[in-house]
Amino acid sequence: MPRSAFIWHINWPLTITALLLFPLLLSLGFWQLSRADEKQSAQHAFDQLRAAQPLALAQLSAQPANYTNLRVRGVIDNSRTLLIDNRIMQGRFGYEVVSPLRVVDSGQWLLINRGWITADSARRTLPAVPPLDGEVELRGHLYRDQAGFELAGETMSSSWPRVVSHLDFAVLGEALQVELQPFSLRLDAESPAALTVDWRVVNLGPEQHVGYAVQWFAMAAALLLAWLLASSNLWQLIRGASATASTGEDRRDD
User: Fold this and answer.
1) Number of domains in the chain
2) Measured between alpha carbons, how far is 211 from 208 in angstroms, rounded to an integer?
3) pTM of the model
4) In this structure, is residue 251 part of a structural domain?
């Protein structure tokens, strides 16, 4: 057999490992690409809705889309403030401040998310929330909070402000003794009641998911190359070809 012939000598332990890991690495890469598409679609939908004219509560459909632009006129109940716990911004501990608002023209009640406020990271005291008195017009976008995780036995305090892990509209409606809309209004930065506002549709951008996908695909390619080199004489052939080329260059120099 010629010395330059390609020869297989299957490395079975590595082959079994590659058969198990290679499809997994590829599936993780494609999953990251699908996540990138989802995040891109969510961002596109957000941008479209945010570009539209704000609607009044009475103009909303029965199932309004998340991030719909909304405007309301009402009076904030400063005496019954909610603080959404453990909201970190730029490495600093704080809360999101949520206030009930009674809509003037309909008497409906809506939770207004005023944004972030810094707080004592040791949790010894609660932050002083600046009140907003009188009738105000507020603008922002509709947001349905995702269900959060509650610790076993977790209960709200009986005093105000109350610290909560997330917004459960049914439970909070009972605590406030009003019927709440099943969504909150996240205020625009220009609204008079807004605190520190930095709303994000996605925490991880599409480009980061693409970067992770590239890493998974690179690992799959490296695994395939390692299997090929370990299961054949390819590396010897490459080294032999390199040595032959080097010898030829030396002879030409002589």
Assistant:
1) 2
2) 5
3) 0.68
4) no
CB atoms within 10 A of CB 198: 9
SS3 state of residue 131: coil
Angle at the Cα of 142 from the Cα atoms of 44 and 77, rounded to 5 degrees: 155
Q: Are 169 and 182 in contact (CB under 8 A)?
A: yes
From first to last of its 254 residues, the chain has per-residue pLDDT tens of 455 677 888 878 888 989 999 999 999 999 999 999 988 888 887 777 777 788 888 888 888 888 889 999 999 999 999 999 999 998 999 999 999 999 998 999 999 999 999 999 888 899 999 999 999 999 999 998 765 444 444 455 568 899 999 999 999 999 999 999 999 999 999 998 899 998 877 667 788 999 999 999 999 999 999 898 888 877 777 776 565 555 555 555 55
- Alpha-carbon distance of 78 to 251, in angstroms, equals 90
Statement to judge: residues 121 and 225 lie in one domain:
no
DSSP β-ladder status, 135-143 and 180-187: antiparallel
| Cβ atoms of 194 and 200 closer than 8 Å | no
How big is the CA angle at 49 (ends 43 and 54), to the nearest 5 degrees? 145
